Amino acid sequence: MSEATLSPYGPDSDLLFAALAHQLGFVRREDLLTSLELWAEDRHRPLSDILVERRAIAAHRRRLLDDVVQEYLLQHGMDAARALETVCSGRQETLDLGRFTSSSTEGTRDSGLLTMHTLTPNA
Fold it and tell me: What angle do CA 84, 49, 45 make, to 5 degrees?
């Protein structure tokens, strides 16, 4: 295996990738769990490679998530474990976006659909 295919940040960044992919709805839970099992057998391969090879995630979404993972790492001092903990801890607030809809969309959408509730890592 070439060095280029090794995950540059280690196992915690692979798990961060997995958590973000799942939270953003980029990968089905079953596909993610199967890919994680395969990755656990060979952690020298990035989980993202396995997800793409299994067609559990599209290549363009992988590139997007790679950028998001990089931003999370930068935000958390390149500490993948701390970034992963933040992602998995979920949000503690509710953000009501319904009041920001334009008047042209009022009445066409239930404002409850525009409310972001607490994120949970096992959802």
Answer: 75
